[in-house]
Each structure stands twice: as structure tokens, then as C-alpha cells.
Amino acid sequence: MSRLISPSILSADFNNLGKDILMLNQSEADWIHFDVMDGVFVPNISFGLPVIQHVKKIATKPLDVHLMIVNPDPFIKPFRDSGADMLTVHYEVCNHLHRTVSAIRQEGMKAGVCLNPATPVHVLEDIINELDLVLLMSVNPGFGGQKFIQNTYQKVIRLRRLIEEKQATALIEIDGGVNLETGKLLFEAGADVLVAGSFIFGTENPMMTIHQLKNV
Ligand code: DX5
Ligand code: ZN
User: Fold this and answer.
1) pTM of this prediction?
2) Active site residues
3) Which end of the chain has fewer beta carbons closer than 10 Å to its terminal beta carbon, N or C?
4) Distance in Å, CA 73 to ligand 2 centroid
């Protein structure tokens, strides 16, 4: 298993976003996570293509884009053109998930699928071999700073078993309520990548927090 950290800029200081991105460049963060929300799939609106375009100009880490939007297909190429390196769509909104995942890969991005807390991992058994990433929500999507859902540990174990059974290569990424305590248990359960927003940007020294999380 890898032990990667993908800080979510949802909790960054948008009055000084460039400063936070330069900090992430210097930090041990492996990726930068973007929580794109449309106010329809989730009860919140965050940011979109212009933020990705501008961050891409100064970021030195891969851009890990999480689309919490109801209609991702028309935005696959725009997000590629804006600089996304990985694009994750929600299983719950894709009527033709195989087609969507193929389209993401055809645009040259890593393809991820995200599951909400109540969506079981077995829904991925016939597409897991086409995925670079599975993102498990450990909170109900829409807001940073929420309480971690404990059942996530069991989901990680089940997903790791499915990946091994199918000899798949998808990474397991977890998003929501990640801190040192949940992060340690998540890595132990088999997660590869941890997304953290408020835990990182809510501390005095985000670089140190990222270092601690990576070495938890
Ligand atoms: C929820 C968002 C959050 C964010 C991380 O829709 O996806 O999970 O990335 O939030 P924290 O780390 O603050 O729980
Ligand atoms: Zn996310």
C-alpha cells in the first residue's frame, strides 16, 4: 500500500490561495485535492474551472479533482484542459459509468470513482479493473469539518479485498474527517491516499501537520 496525502483546498485561505499552494509545493503532500460542488448533487457550491486553471500555473503536485456534480460527462475535457491530472466522478450520478471512466482515460487523466457513505463497494466489481482510484466518502459530501463515519474502516477492508480478488491496481482514497487518529486506522485498514482539509488548514503549521499525517 502507498501512504499518500492529498490536502483538500476546500479549507484553504481563499484570500491567499497562492500562498497556500506554494506551501503545499514545499510540503510532503503528494497531490492537491479539489472539491468541486454544483449545489445540486450536494447542498453546497464550492468552486470550478478557473480555480483549477490558476492553481495549475503554480502547483508542482498532481491535481486530484473530485467532482461532486450531477452531470460530469460534459466537463471531462474542460477539466483536462484546465490541468486536472486525476478526475473522480460519483457512482451515484453516472448512468453509463464505464463510458464515463473510458472518456476520462481517453483524455489522458487517471480515472476515479467516488462512493457515498451508504453506497456499498460491491457496485464496483465489474469496473474496478478499469479504475486508477476509488474514493470513499467518510462523511456525507458537501462540507469540510464534518464527523468521520466509523463504518468507513469496514468499507476499506472490503474494497481492499475486492481489489485483491480482481487483481486490480486501483488506489483507495478516503475523504472526510481525516485526522491523525482516523488517518492511522485508515492506513492500517488498507487505504493508500488520505484527503484532509480542515485538519491540515485548521492548524498553526500545515506543513508539519502534513508531515505528521504522512508518517502517522
Ligand atoms: C466533503 C469534502 C470534504 C473535504 C475534506 O464534500 O469532500 O470531505 O474534502 O474535508 P475535511 O478534511 O475538512 O473533513
Ligand atoms: Zn473530496
Assistant:
1) 0.98
2) 35, 175
3) N
4) 18
- For the chain, domains (ranges, CATH) are 4-214 (3.20.20.70)
- 137 strand-pairing partners: 175
Ligand 1 pocket check for 64: Cβ under 6 Å: no
* Ligand 1: centre distance to CA 43 (Å): 13
CA distance 84 to 3: 21
Amino acid (1-letter code) at residue 208: M
Length of the chain: 216
Q: Cα–Cα–Cα angle for 45, 51, 52, nearest 5°? A: 110
Is the Cβ atom of 38 under 6 angstroms away from ligand 1? no
DSSP string, 72-137: -GGGHHHHHHHT-SEEEEEGGG-TTHHHHHHHHHHTT-EEEEEE-TTS-GGGGTTTGGG-SEEEEE
Reading the block at residue 11, the C-alpha cell is 479549507
